[in-house]
Amino acid sequence: MNKQLIECVPNFSEGRNMDIIKQITDSIKAVEGVKLLDVDPGKATNRTVVTMVGEPENIIEAAFRAVKQASELIDMSQHSGEHPRFGATDVCPLVPVSNISMEETVEYAHKLAQRIGEELAIPVYCYENAARIEKRKNLATVRSGEYEGLEEKLKDPEWKPDFGPAIFNKSAGATAVSARDFLVAYNVNLNTTSTRRANAIAFDVRERGRVKREGDPVTGKIVKDDKGNPVYSPGSLKAVKAIGWFIEEFGVAQISMNLTNISVTPVHLAYDEVFKRAEARGIRATGSELVGLIPLNAMLDAGRYFLRKQQRSTGVSDKELIKIAVKSMGLNELYPFKPEEKIIEYMIEDKGAGKLIDMSLEAFMEETASESPAPGGGSVSAYMGAIGVALGTMVANLSSHKRGWDDRWEEFSDWAEKGKAYQERLLRLVDEDTEAFNRIMYAFRLPQKTGDDKAVRKTAIEEATKNAIMVPLSVMETALNSMEVMAAMAGSGNPNSVSDAGVGALAARACVRGAYLNVKINSAGLADRVFINDVMNKAGQIDESARKKEEDILKTVEEKL
Q: Span 184-347: which CATH code?
């Protein structure tokens, strides 16, 4: 899955009127491509925390609509609640989930903030990573004075909003928009019922650490700074908050952690560190639990981490990596760990999309053999390429585990990782090729009653055809590049599997040739001859390179057979 995903967690200043909350969340649900994951209203705080996830542009649209709806339905002049707040949509943080950097997420945060400020006339302040002024990084500082002090605050030039007017919006108040790191709530189970001992371990690992004492670390006098504040000895894990507690339901103590930046301290490092610190105190970490959701990459990184510790290849399927992560951290100790319910990307997956790659081999074959023109040769070519490099990946994995080759496991693991990446790209192209064909069919069905209609239709057909050429060209490039894996495995991989590397090369070559035929047939009716000449030159070069590569690989294979 290569989609860019952002999580958005807006907090609305209404936690009691379910009709208002529903109208706000309905505005989110109306945006295609956005998944509403959680709605958590609180009566005492009079505040609702909403969690949604989707591709960036869709999330920005959903967030904007929700802020707009809240500004129309919530009157801050009548609001009261225990939680600090200064706006109908009090805060609206964006969180990068997958395939998107924090820098990109900050840009989207600013884009959202600008829309809110300009289109809704709501003062907007940017905080945390999205802060445009250093002193506004801290939310507490930005929200100081809350709603009641907002009117006066806006008169101060130093508190001119980042976006929107410096004018008091009596009903909507102000909104704080940010980009922040993904927070994971993660608990480690212990074989003790002692909260005190659990807390001791929590203080060992959490970033804040524990209070410094003179002499005895438990009963000694607390060390204070020149302002009279306690001095802390930092713990071993950065970006981690932790406390020990007892869970009556399961009869065990836990280390309850908030991992506030999983790129700094991921779940697998948190688990291992707690395990080590617990063992030093005569206690065992027996397993763990994830509270809420986690990005897919965090689980895949955990699987790779534990495989590396075993000196085993990491170039295995996502399913296998997740299985290793779950087993290694005991994530199914308290209840079954279901990836489809705990991993964000799997939660929002469109299971009814009818993707070719989700079909069984038999179903794919039967669909190909049917009277429907798609899937056709392009999709089949991409699939042949995926199967071909899968064989190369298999040889790499077998080689990394070969008796007597223990010192070479990393070399072959790296090749297996490369092979897996090519597999995944070619599998995506299986569906992209059929989607490209469908776009052409859609363009041909456009109306042509008027001259304008005909012009629009002609342009649409031209653009759809160019796309239908670029997809098989991408298949050709990817399959050619994937042959490096088969070449390496034929040359230095497990000799007992050298024929598999050869078959992989044959499949990759067939993939290149098949995709080349698709480039040719789709180019036939295109008007843009400059585009066609460039594409055909490039495709011809790829085809010739693949021919030579296949020849070299098969020569190596034959010499070893």
A: 3.30.70.670
